[in-house]
Write a structure and sequence with these properties.
heterodimer, A: alpha/beta, Rossmann fold, six-stranded mixed sheet, four-stranded antiparallel sheet, B: alpha+beta, 2 domains, seven-stranded mixed sheet, 13 strands, 50% helix, elongated, ATP-binding (chain A)
Chain lengths: 240, 433
């Protein structure tokens, strides 16, 4: 078995202290292999978002070890961490986080701008990503003038533009109607199948979760063991 | 993120909330405007004073008089006669009415000459011509500037006096031109005028001299400047028929020292002279007090402008803190995408510096426009009696310094919000609703 892209070993995270202490995650272990699509499923407040944030190295676990391609994340220097976030990870958020007054293209090339890529290359790579998501004609529009589905496609284009190894998607269809949501799902799974990008989706949508290779159920900060997609279905249905 | 991209995004970001940025820019504008105007007044007045200083005397010149007798106070009555003492002479124009001073004798001049550091000494020979006339246009009284010989004049036309020349030269003040019958300053240059002077026996004689230049009026009155040759010539004529044995006495003498002398060296020369019983003054001493007053006024005005700028600095802090607050998510996103804290810091600092630049550049431009306009109006209005005075003048260097200082203040004001932005945790920022 090859070295997992991400490997969590009994990671925990808590917020606050004393009486207000809240254990968001109480020790979860999981391995994610390259090219997999994994759904992290749970109710709101279950700790699923915290888990994703830890996996995406946006936050440090209080306990346990997180390995990135076999390396302890704690031993990564700030510079390497930034490079990893910038080049190996892509993020898709429910709330989009697009800069409203900037153009679609400017939003999409943000990771390249941060990486210090030249303006010309930025434009060509940004346009390529937009074409892949059929948004090339909107490149010069202001981000605020896009529809919800277009915004989410722009966000996916932004996640893609650096050719990442892993895409983290936090409720990617949460703010979309079901038809648009289905289109966005198709795009994400196509990227997973055709480009081999590892997909980590946080969702409470069981149908979306069912499309992933693997589901991880989080409840009250712990993983629930359930293997069958059908079981997922029932439980998820109850949640949503 | 490349530096250029940071600058570009910072500029774009500052225009995102135009009203807020605009108001902050106005605050900085007021400070920069005031600072530019006060510094302009400083430059203008200083330039004028310096012009006047060169009219009073050169930098390497000491005006020497005999120190006043400390014992001869009014209540003691007259001092006992001392045949070795020279007579007193009136200082004439410009001194306290009725004040007299011990005259300098030739022996005194030799003593002064022997003082270390003094290169040469010339008695201030006073000549009193009766009239000046040009081309038969009538005779007019001629006032001679006592310091005209050694000073550098503020010229309206022509050239400075040449003291090494053996030809007789003079500089006419602009006010003489009309009466003497010249069309303008240029027309006077190169012409020959005749000067009438009465000799010791009461006979009027005429000396001719060439007008080498025309000088602007100064604060210190308008007299014609004569070169050394002409002064000597007139003195010779005036003393014609003087019986032998009349002792020569001079109210003042002019001593030259090394132009590169340091302040300490000048003080040493002055102390040396004072120990020998002579009081001496450089031009700087004469004008120094006046300049100090001007500098204090300018300093106070500048202090007010700086206070305005500091207030504007807090405006920047406020603007940027709000901006950081508003853009929490965006900062979090950039950090999640691998932007390091330093770049985030740079981005917000740059925005502060840009706001500072915008306010100061606009303030400086407006100040130059308004200042030049007012200066011209004043020069033709209430200051028309002081030709050459441009109250507000702008030196490029001080303008650059003002813009630089304002940008520095803006940068310092921006450090607090920029640090707040750089320290944000991507997760807290992205969760922020």
């Amino acid at each position: 078995m090859s070295v997992p892209v991400l490997s969590a070993q009994v990671i925990g995270k808590s917020y606050g202290s004393g009486a207000n202490r809240f254990d968001a995650l109480k020790g979860v272990s999981l391995d994610i292999q390259a090219g997999e699509s994994v759904a992290i499923v749970g109710k709101s407040g279950s700790g699923k978002s915290t888990l994703m944030h830890l996996l995406a190295l946006l936050d440090d676990p209080d306990s346990g070890v997180l390995l990135v391609e076999g390396t302890d994340a704690k031993k990564l220097k700030a510079k390497e961490l930034n490079r990893l976030r910038n080049q190996d990870f892509g993020f898709v958020f429910q709330q989009f986080f697009l800069t409203a007054n900037a153009t679609v293209l400017e939003n999409v090339v943000l990771p390249l701008t941060i990486a210090g890529v030249g303006a010309k290359e930025r434009k060509s790579r940004g346009m390529a990503a937009l074409e892949q998501l059929e948004l090339a004609d909107k490149a010069k529009n202001k981000a605020k003038n896009l529809s919800g589905g277009q915004k989410q496609r722009a966000v996916i284009a932004r996640a893609l533009v650096n050719n990442p190894k892993v895409i983290f998607a936090d409720e990617p269809t949460g703010n979309l109607d079901s038809a648009t949501g289905a289109v966005v799902e198709d795009i994400l799974f196509k990227l997973n199948k055709e480009n081999g990008i590892t997909l980590i989706i946080v969702t409470h949508d069981t149908e979306l979760a069912a499309r992933c290779d693997r589901q991880i159920f989080i409840r009250d900060g712990l993983e629930e063991t359930a293997d069958s997609p059908t079981g997922t279905h029932k439980r998820g249905g109850a949640h949503s | 993120m490349k530096f250029l991209d940071i600058v570009r995004s910072a500029i774009q970001n500052s225009f995102r909330n135009k009203l807020r940025t605009g108001l902050t820019v106005v605050a900085i504008f007021i400070g920069a405007f005031t600072l530019t105007i006060t510094s302009g007044i400083g430059t203008g007045v200083t330039a004028y004073i310096n012009g006047q200083v060169s009219a009073i005397g050169a930098a390497d010149v000491l005006t020497i008089t005999k120190a006043a007798d400390a014992t001869a106070t009014a209540s003691d009555g007259p001092a006992a006669y001392d045949p070795s003492k020279s007579t007193t002479v009136s200082l004439g124009n410009g001194s306290r009415p009725g004040s007299t001073i011990q005259a300098l004798t030739t022996a005194d001049l030799a003593k002064i000459k022997a003082t270390a550091g003094i290169l040469s000494v010339d008695p201030a020979v006073r000549v009193s011509p009766d009239y000046v006339e040009y081309a038969g246009n009538g005779k007019f009284e001629l006032t001679v500037s006592q310091t005209g010989t050694i000073t550098t004049a503020d010229l309206a036309a022509g050239a400075q006096l040449d003291n090494s020349s053996s030809s007789d030269q003079l500089l006419l003040p602009t006010t003489y031109l009309d009466n003497l019958g010249y069309a303008d300053a240029k027309a006077a240059v190169g012409t020959t005028v005749s000067i009438g002077i009465t000799d010791y026996t009461g006979t009027q004689q005429t000396v001719t001299a060439t007008v080498v230049g025309v000088q602007n009026e100064t604060l210190l009155g308008s007299g014609a400047g004569l070169n050394r040759s002409l002064v000597a010539h007139l003195h010779t004529v005036a003393t014609t028929g003087e019986p032998a044995g009349v002792s020569a006495g001079y109210a003042t003498a002019v001593a030259h020292f090394d132009v590169s002398a340091t302040k300490a060296q000048i003080t040493a020369i002055k102390d040396d002279l004072s120990a020998q019983g002579y009081s001496s003054q450089t031009v700087a001493d004469t004008i120094g007090a006046f300049e100090t007053v001007i500098n204090v006024i300018i300093g106070v005005l500048n202090a007010f402008a700086v206070i305005a700028l500091i207030a504007a600095g807090f405006g920047i802090v406020n603007t940027l803190l709000m901006s950081v607050q508003e853009r929490t998510r965006e900062i979090g996103l950039m950090k999640a995408m691998g932007m390091n804290g330093g770049r985030v810091y740079a981005l917000f600092s740059m925005e502060a510096v840009f706001i500072g630049f915008l306010g100061s550049a606009l303030g400086v431009i407006a100040a130059i426009g308004v200042g030049s306009l007012i200066s011209n109006l004043l020069a033709n209005g209430i200051f028309s009696a002081l030709p050459g005075l441009q109250v507000v003048q702008f030196a490029p260097a001080s303008i650059a310094i003002i813009v630089g200082v304002v940008m520095l203040i803006a940068f310092l004001a921006g450090t607090l919000p920029a640090r707040a932005a750089a320290r944000q945790n991507p997760i807290d920022a992205l969760r922020y609703e």
